[in-house]
Amino acid sequence: MTRxxxxxxxxxxxxxxxxxxxxxxxxxxxxxxxxxxVIERVGPQCDGLILNANGEAARFxxxxxxxxxxxxxxxxxxxxxxxxxxDWAAERRPDIAFVVSAAADCPFxxxxxxxxxxxxxxREGADLAVAKSGDQTHPVIGLWKVALRAxxxxxxxxxxxxxxxxxxxxxxxxxxEWPTIPLDPFFNANRPEDLDEAERLxxxxxxxx
Length: 209
Fold this sequence. Notes:
209 residues, two-stranded antiparallel ribbon, alpha/beta, globular
């Protein structure tokens, strides 16, 4: 199947309240930051990669990525980060029709994320795609059509629609499932205690690679 060009966005615009504040993606797992692991997983799959983050962009300068803040004020959640990426793609990369989003706290993302999203979208005639593992969907890990950015902005700004599932329900959505063995590729480090589990999973991941 012919796949359209896809921009990747790593969503790091949250407040990290459950982690106690600060930049959660900069926490270390197996001697590397969570963010470095996410970039290493997602970057090679995409036709460009950006980082959605608010505040001082220079703190991420070591990663060499464009840092794109939310354009909707008030920390409106992951959809605001997706919108920022769709707008950036439309303005800077008119050759790109789709954006894939990845949470900045998911260090074990699948290396076939973009390919499987695009294949499912084409096969099912879908507008969007979302990840699933086990019995849980992961709405932050998704494939988004740049052409829907005006509709998303209206939903966020006018309707105050911040829940991803509520917005994606308006469109044809492909759900793509991954196995959870040997580990769930969408494990996310939300709380300090998750870092210990992430260390254990990093060892499993290294063995599986």
